[in-house]
Amino acid sequence: MPVKVELLEDGLFVSMICWGVLSRQETGWAHETVREHVVAANAIGILVDVRDTEITSTPAYSAEIVENFIFALERSLPIAFLPPLGWSEAHFERVWSLVPELDIRVEVFKAREAALDWLRIATEPSDRTPQSDRKKAAH
Predict the structure, then answer these.
(1) What is the pLDDT along the chain (139 residues), one digit of tens a residue?
(2) Structure pTM?
(3) What CA–CA distance (Å, rounded) separates 12 from 62?
(4) How far apart, in whole angstroms, are the C-alpha atoms of residue 37 and residue 137?
(5) Please, are residues 109 and 115 in contact by the beta-carbon 8 Å criterion?
(6) For residue 136, with 0-12 CB atoms within 10 Å meaning exposed, 13-18 middle and 19 or more buried, which class applies?
(7) For helices 59-73 and 89-98, what crossing angle results, to 10°?
(8) Edge-to-edge strands of the sheet including 3-8?
């Protein structure tokens, strides 16, 4: 299965890394596994790294996956998102235009370490109020 879910930094964060082509079943398994890890570890942030997934879906399907992932979590947590490397700017913009406003904080990154740095800052006790803060450009 081209998905790996693990805890990072003593369970503070859940990491989901995907590569290749994902089926709906694998995507659903990944969402549920992240949710289970969040609950079990009482995690406070999520790193989603899908840079190496194949671009086989339309923007509408990509938006559906994003939305389903957020709903599967059942609680608002900061999410650091590393999108597929093959997404064009037009695809990226179309995906986010199709995702309804959600009460969750998502930042987009190109590098894993920058994403983790942001999660560390975003989960500081004074900054734990969820809010919609999607960025148009990757860091």
Answers:
(1) 699 999 999 999 999 999 998 888 999 999 999 999 999 999 999 999 999 998 777 888 888 888 888 888 888 899 999 999 988 889 888 888 887 777 778 899 999 999 999 999 998 876 444 444 444 455 5
(2) 0.83
(3) 27
(4) 29
(5) yes
(6) exposed
(7) 50
(8) 3-8, 13-20, 45-53, 79-82, 106-108
